[in-house]
Write a structure and sequence with these properties.
By secondary structure, the chain is of the alpha/beta class. Helices cover 36% and strands 17% of the residues. The termini are far apart.
Length: 301
């Protein structure tokens, strides 16, 4: 008998869906979270990263040895650095210099070249620089913001997994919105199964800085975003997201980042408004890549 062993790429997806035990409180609702930090490079972005490279290969757009370029605030960059290492590509990542040290170290650990832009230039500046480098012939921009292979990873993976794991009983899906790939692809699949499922997107309220999610200026709104796929957009404050993030670790044993805390905070708000619902929120990454920011040190919890 010949044993067939998986590669690291085979371990992307099929993440656990678990029930909140304490944060939910007394309720008739079932509150579930999908643990995307269990992906090999530690976040939900492993899915689109592998999808964008694999599908570009299949089309003949790229071949091993090519240089790939991407603007990132962190998780996508780490995931792409991993996927490039798996597939044999050189990777140039461009990100704002206020991203956490853990993220920068993880990208370079996978062999990626890292270019930093200022905090003031932000993700918009990083995206502009990526396009400039491509125009200069330095490599090919994958462009997670406009690349249909990003949401497609969630249409073929995240959505079907949630539908299967809930036995088709899901009533609400809650996700923070950055590039919006997760919510676009998952919404498309879930709505095809049951149009009544409510899709709720989280964005930071004015003045809040939540890593990985954005209120995009109109001219930088991701091209993959389709407003009609989101039933409700909820504004989330930084303090509320951080508070729930710390509670998840201390009361549920779920160690995650700030945007995940925001998603669960949104789910807790919604749970006050409905009964007998089955809600799923995305825990998009692990908390260890935020420790250097001190976000877990708040004595007030």
């Amino acid at each position: 008998m010949t044993l067939q062993f998986p590669t690291i790429a085979d371990c992307v997806g099929n993440t656990p869906l678990v029930r909140l035990q304490r944060l939910a409180g007394e309720t008739s609702n079932t509150l579930l979270v999908k643990l995307e930090g269990n992906n090999p490079a530690g976040s939900v972005k492993d899915r689109p990263a592998l999808s964008m490279i694999t599908r570009a290969e299949l089309r003949g757009d790229i071949q091993p040895g090519d240089t790939l370029i991407e603007a990132t605030s962190g998780n996508t960059g780490i995931a792409l650095a991993m996927a490039a290492a798996i597939k044999g590509y050189k990777m140039i990542l461009i990100m704002p210099d206020n991203s956490t040290a853990e993220r920068k170290w993880a990208m370079t650990a996978y062999g990626a070249e890292l270019i930093l832009v200022s905090k003031e230039e932000g993700m918009e500046g990083a995206r502009d620089l990526a396009e400039k480098l491509q125009a200069e012939g330095r490599g090919k921009v994958l462009d997670q913001f406009a690349n249909g292979d990003n949401p497609q990873a969630h249409y073929t993976g995240t959505g079907p997994e949630i539908w299967r794991q809930t036995g088709g009983t899901i009533t609400h899906f809650i996700s923070s919105m950055g590039t919006t790939g997760t919510i676009m692809g998952t919404s498309r699949y879930l709505k095809e199964q049951n149009p009544a499922i409510q899709i709720v997107g989280l964005q930071p309220q004015e003045g809040s800085a939540i890593p990985g999610i954005r209120r995009w200026p109109e001219e930088y709104l991701p091209k993959i975003y389709q407003a009609e796929r989101v039933d409700q957009v909820m504004d989330m404050g930084q303090a509320e997201a951080e508070h729930v993030m710390r509670r998840l670790a201390r009361e549920e044993g779920i160690f995650c980042g700030v945007s995940s805390g925001g998603s669960v905070a949104g789910m807790l708000r919604l749970s006050q408004q409905v009964e007998n619902a089955v809600m799923v929120a995305i825990i998009c990454d692990r908390g260890d890549r935020y420790l250097s920011t001190g976000v877990y040190e708040d004595p007030a919890h």
